[in-house]
Amino acid sequence: EVQLLESGGGLVQPGGSLRLSCAASGFTFSSYVMTWVRQAPGKGLEWVSGISGSGGVTYYADSVKGRFTIARDNAKNTLYLQMNSLRDEDTAVFYCAKDEPPYCAGDCYQDSWGQGTLVTVSS
Amino acid sequence: QSVLTQPPSVSGAPGQRVTISCTGSSSNIGAGFDVHWYQQLPRTAPKLLIYVNSNRPSGVPDRFSGSKSGTSASLAITGLQAEDEADYYCQSYDSSLSGSVVFGGGTKLTVL
Q1: How many C-beta atoms surround the C-beta of residue A56 within 10 A?
Q2: Strands, DSSP E only, in B1-112?
Q3: For residue B56, how far is the Cα from the chain centroid?
Q4: Quick check: A94 contacting B, CB < 8 Å?
Q5: Residue B78 backbone phi and psi in degrees, to 5
Q6: A2 near B CB under 8 A
Q7: What is the pLDDT of residues A57-93, one digit of tens each?
Q8: How far off is chain A from B43, nearest CA to CA, in Å?
Q9: Closest among A77, A113, A78, A107 to A94, alpha carbons compared
Q10: Cβ–Cβ below 8 Å for B93 and A95
Q11: Which helix (H) or strand (E) holds A98?
Q12: Which of A35, A45, A52 to mutate to test the interface with B (most CBs of B within 10 A)?
């Protein structure tokens, strides 16, 4: 059974940093693109970032490019999102998700999701 | 403003059929990219409902179906049940955007 468990959320001041983690199990982690999706309070889903199975290719939404960095450690089956220069509008629940099909490039979908971790940016 | 446009809300009585539209453009759905649908029950994570336009993952009832034509896609739910009350999101790929993955704004389904 696929399991994704996010951690690292919390309250941070504007301009601050936070690193999210997502521990994965139940599948061959290195074979799959992984994705971060966020949802601001009362709002819809927003794709944030994706990373190839090897970690060599990364993708970012314009709203976070230059501030967020996605990474993965395939030896630890863990996905990360380093968030710097946080803004009020980054307040959201952040979900990690596993993409399908394996080795997909761009036209992927998310077949498994974590429970989410809340990031609150406020002074 | 989402790249993919969905109605903010739809409603129907138990047993009825409802459809949710997802309208895109020539750089996403119209370019041939697939559409996927997610269901988000209150206070839970999204769940994959339909993938690659019309395919249901294991465990999703056949009351849910998807279709795609031109620059639009649709999700249909037949035999509406109370537990279908949720938010529904479409998703596709957009060749004009740097990140490229796009979601619709979401549709709140109310079962009357």
Answers
A1: 7
A2: 9-12, 18-23, 36-40, 47-50, 64-69, 72-77, 86-93, 101-103, 107-111
A3: 12
A4: no
A5: -105, 160
A6: no
A7: 999 999 999 999 999 999 999 999 999 999 999 999 9
A8: 10
A9: A113
A10: no
A11: strand A92-100
A12: A45
